[in-house]
Amino acid sequence: MAASFRPRILAMQFLAAIAFISGIIRSSADDPPLTLDYYASSCPTVLEIIREEMGREVLSDQRNAALVLRLHFHDCFVQGCDGSVLLDDTVTLRGEKTASPNINSLKGFEIIDRIKSKVESACPELDAVLLVGGPYWDVPVGRKDSRSASYDLANTNIPTPNQGLISIIYKFFYLGLSVTDTCTCKPLGAHTIGVARCENFRTRIYGDYELTSGGSPLSEVHLSQLKSTCPAAGGGDNNIAPLDYETPYTFDNSYYHLLLNGEGLLNSDQELYSSLLALQTRKLVEQYALDPAAFFQQFSISMIKMGNLTNPDSFVDGEVRKSCRFINA
Ligand code: HEM
């Protein structure tokens, strides 16, 4: 699959403009595979529009890039990248939004609605799920929207923060993604930006955080801040802390430095470096901590691979959703 790597760092934000937008339709079930220029003739400005709108969203709130990036991941790990995560519950369809990894946690649906409406006005009557890579990598496009969602797969396929390394690698492997993809996609590739809620890091900070971080004075200060954000005795479940406290809104490799220091916020993050089984991933963490360019390049590759997870059913009976939130009547 052709892909161009354009890893760049924007000073303050990572414009991970991955958007699930109703864009332009593939005309038949045996359309050519996903390509980079799928929309070149039907809506040549669509990628520009999405980048511009996503840029605007990130300027209005830096966290928006993280929200959309995570939406992309949670979509792709359930039935492939088919927009199923965007579907609201109806009487006939149980969507994925209330599955345990998503409920009260996955956000950014309004961003998608807003961008979709811009695309619709520029290219009316041209629809379908369009997954678009942002300024840092190009994602081949041309999918159809699924007519289904899977609450059950959302519960089983999406890794959870307290899972061990082997089971996380298995979940990636099951979908055809390698150990390297796990290591780059997961922590820094994604967790270099954004936040987590207390209920997802409580076990970690009252568990082995002190052990992995070696109790250095700086780590102790940070740990006590985390503990005041997230009390042990319950309460404050929705209080948030940055996944990468050094540079929470910058897409950089400092997250790998945190892992080297034993300060990963989620158990699943720190596992990549500290697990007894982390033979291969530990080496990758060390490599990416030293060499940001290697990380950016591999991140692009992993994101493209993840974005290429397709839903075979959507190729056959996928559709062009009029609204991202509902299948067509
Ligand atoms: C082992 C795999 C992964 C696990 C266990 C995991 C888990 C989590 C958890 C628990 C949170 C915090 C959610 C909350 O507290 O509400 C989070 C946030 C986030 N995750 Fe992951 N994640 C994984 C992989 C990924 C991947 C592959 C991506 C993207 C490619 C990603 C992108 C993000 C982003 C950007 C955020 C911050 C969202 C925000 O600020 O609201 N994660 N992740």
Automatic annotation (TrEMBL):
Q: Name one GO biological process term.
A: hydrogen peroxide catabolic process
**EC code(s) of this entry:** 1.11.1.7
**Cofactor section:** heme b; Ca(2+)
Active site: residue positions = 74 (proton acceptor)
GO cellular component terms attached to this protein's record: extracellular region
All disulfide bonds of the chain are 43-123, 76-81, 198-230
Write down the Gene3D superfamilies for this protein, in alphabetical order: 1.10.520.10, Peroxidase, domain 2
Query: What is its subcellular localisation?
Result: Secreted
- What are the residue positions of the site described as Transition state stabilizer? 70
Q: Which residues of this UniProt protein bind heme b? A: 191
The residues the record assigns to binding substrate are 159
Where would you say this protein principally sits, based on its record? secreted
- Which residues does the annotation say bind Ca(2+) 2? 192, 244, 247, 252
Gene Ontology MF annotations: heme binding; lactoperoxidase activity; metal ion binding
Q: Does the keyword Transmembrane helix apply?
A: no
Keywords attached to this Swiss-Prot or TrEMBL record, sorted alphabetically, are:
Calcium, Disulfide bond, Heme, Hydrogen peroxide, Iron, Metal-binding, Oxidoreductase, Peroxidase, Secreted, Signal
Binding sites annotated in the UniProt record for Ca(2+) 1: 75, 78, 80, 82, 84, 96
Q: How is the cofactor bound?
A: Binds 1 heme b (iron(II)-protoporphyrin IX) group per subunit.
Residues covered by the Plant heme peroxidase family profile domain: 33-328
Q: Where is the signal peptide?
A: 1-29
Q: Which reaction does it catalyse?
A: 2 a phenolic donor + H2O2 = 2 a phenolic radical donor + 2 H2O
Keyword Nucleotide-binding in the entry? The reply is no
Q: Which PANTHER family match?
A: PEROXIDASE 11 (PTHR31388:SF9), PEROXIDASE 72-RELATED (PTHR31388)
Q: Which family does it belong to?
A: Belongs to the peroxidase family. Classical plant (class III) peroxidase subfamily.
Q: What does this protein do?
A: Removal of H(2)O(2), oxidation of toxic reductants, biosynthesis and degradation of lignin, suberization, auxin catabolism, response to environmental stresses such as wounding, pathogen attack and oxidative stress. These functions might be dependent on each isozyme/isoform in each plant tissue.
Name of the protein in question: Peroxidase
